[in-house]
Predict the structure.
Amino acid sequence: MLAALLIVFREVIEAGLIVGIVLAAARGVAGRGRWVTIGIVAGVLGAALVAAFADGIANLFEGSGQELFNAAILLVAVVMLAWHTGWMASHGREMAQEMRKVGAAVARGDKSLVALAVVVGVAVLREGSEVVLFLYGIVASGGVSATGLVVGGLLGVAAGSAVSALMYFGLLTIHPRYLFGVTSKLIMLLAAGLASQAVAFLQQSGTIEALATPLWNTGWLLKDSSIAGRLLKTLVGYTDSPTGMQLIAYLATIACFLALVRWVHHRRTVTPAPVSLT
Amino acid sequence: MNARNRYGFGFARLALVGAVAVVLAAVAGGPVRADDDATLTLKLKDHHFDPAMPSIPAEKRVKVTVTNLDSTPAEVESDDFKMEKVVAGGATVILTIGPLKAGEYEIHDEYNEDVSKTKLTVK
């Protein structure tokens, strides 16, 4: 039961942390809860579908279907996070000012919220399909301990959700003035980590052949598979044995996000806009 | 203010161009030599790997074929290098690993970690 709890817990915190960051990043945007809920529900349904067709997906594209599928949804999440970051860069300052004035301000951000719903959806989809497969395996193999393992799995879901909620409320204790600064940096590192994971899948499928040897292994210090490793993997893209191409993807994503934000700010200052003296 | 922004924009373009150039160079530099790949065949039965102590050549890409003879799904994974793939019950998958440096690398089935854990020798 403890083993089941741990496995499910590890998967749930990965998706849950992403949901927490997204919720905090969208603070003050009207309709945030609805879109994030849509993302979670769609992700859970998608996860069940992916688990049901796991064998079929694996056999697509000469047996590389699973890797290409995972890489594709990770890259979709990266693009959506970039879109949101660009949107926040052009609206975040006004939103932060409004929130300071009114406490809980309402800003229009439907398009950005669709992007965030997609990010939540693919995060839940990816981690959720592994949970579903794991729990299905337990149920299918039967045995006396099956009930205990399912209970453990459900407790894992609860514990993972609790940690994610803690993360979310922790972010909310940050003053609104600084919140967007913190969440946009978190989202940049999150995206860089997802890009590096996508590269790992493309290397496993043989799609990317260059620089596939691990550069180093810090597993002696912190393993990917440990709870702390999982937390850092989601938050900053930590991995104990990155390949050269993963490192390049990680750094390139950060460079692109920084470039995007500077580009949006540049456009804003070129077009006449209300000047803020604060 | 203007000067700072112009500098900022310049830096942004530089970063973007640099990133794109590095990625293109790395992708273009990747040699295509799939024929040289070594192979390894692994079976999973009662959540144990067969062969129990597999071994592959060092500094070579290896095509690994994994057949899951159990009826329940497995996820072959390593804590020491990048490998993570679900194998449905009764299914066979192929994945690419390495090139790896010589040494011993832990591998396991994520869904049955304790029983399945073994070592992959790279030499």
